[in-house]
Design brief:
The protein has helices at 2-14, 26-29, 75-89, 106-114, and strands at residues 34-41, 44-55, 58-66, 94-100, 118-119, 132-138. By secondary structure, the chain is of the alpha+beta class. The chain has one domain: 3-Layer(aba) Sandwich (Aminopeptidase), CATH 3.40.630.30. Strands 1-2-3-4-6-5 form a six-stranded mixed beta sheet, with helices on both faces. Strand 1 (34-41) and strand 2 form a beta hairpin.
């Protein structure tokens, strides 16, 4: 899993301008407010995703990444569905996320839109970088 986290960070820095990378490193993933899930097929790590508790009603999707060998197999959509279900089970009324605006993040933005996430202003401690895009999903009462 360490390799996938490191790959995630490398891609974030390679595809984002300075000051616009908010991906969690290993220390960030160990924060008590963060819960990380991984998807496996036998001994093969397929992907990962995390939820960060912002407050009792609001969670943030973090560290969504599919291992390169398993792209286009539905791993990302499955992980996203799991995170949304976990958000509901945690009592969150809203899930939000930050992602990039360029082509490198286009597939992720499309997946989030297809899952019902809509554009929103910066949330939590984020401020407008000019590069980041913010999305939210209303989970209802």
């Amino acid at each position: 899993m360490v390799d996938l986290v490191e790959s995630h960070l490398r891609a974030a820095f390679a595809n984002s301008p300075p000051g616009a990378v908010f991906a969690l490193d290993l220390a960030g993933l160990r924060d008590p407010a963060v819960t990380l899930w991984t998807a496996w097929e036998g001994d093969a790590l397929l992907g990962m995703g995390a939820l960060k508790r912002l407050d009792a009603a609001h969670g943030e999707l973090k560290s969504m990444r599919v291992a390169p060998a398993h792209l286009r197999r539905g791993v990302g959509r499955t992980m996203l569905a799991h995170l949304v279900a976990e958000g509901r089970a945690s009592g969150y009324r809203r899930l939000s996320l930050e992602t990039g605006a360029n082509q490198a993040f286009a597939a992720a933005r499309a997946m989030y839109a297809q899952a019902g996430f809509i554009a929103c202003p910066p949330f939590a401690d984020y401020s407008d970088t000019g590069f980041s895009r913010y999305f939210t999903l209303d989970l209802g009462a």
